[in-house]
């Protein structure tokens, strides 16, 4: 999963994550959201999501408000779960994990994305 602090295949999993966000929000909304989050975070929001999902979530909260950020995060997690086949998890499980142990949540998210990448990254549910 990690190699010297960097994600193996980070470009692949970043592209999959982008496709998931675009499939949920639509391309135009995702571009607008990315623009605002990049301004808030000072760097690419998908990179932040992969490195520190809580930091991403906090920026999302500033944009959408707490409830909107929670719903958006859970929808993204639900899509990840469905696509990766990690059906023993729920979006609530990942959200709760994010609040308790960011690193554990990050590992779960990256593991799901890596599984998708190994399957060819298709977003067919």
Describe the structure.
The chain is mainly α and 125 residues long. The protein has a single domain, classed as Non-ribosomal Peptide Synthetase Peptidyl Carrier Protein, Chain A, CATH 1.10.1200. It contains six helices and two strands. The protein has helices spanning 10-25, 27-41, 45-51, 53-84, 91-100, 102-118; strands spanning 2-3, 6-7. A two-stranded antiparallel ribbon has the order 1-2. Helix 1 crosses helix 6. 26% of the residues are buried. Residues 1-9 have low confidence and may be disordered.
Secondary structure blueprint with pairings:
Blueprint: E1 2-3, E2 6-7, H1 10-25, H2 27-41, H3 45-51, H4 53-84, H5 91-100, H6 102-118
Antiparallel strand pairs: 1-2
Helix pairs in contact: 1-2, 1-6, 2-4, 3-4, 4-5, 4-6, 5-6
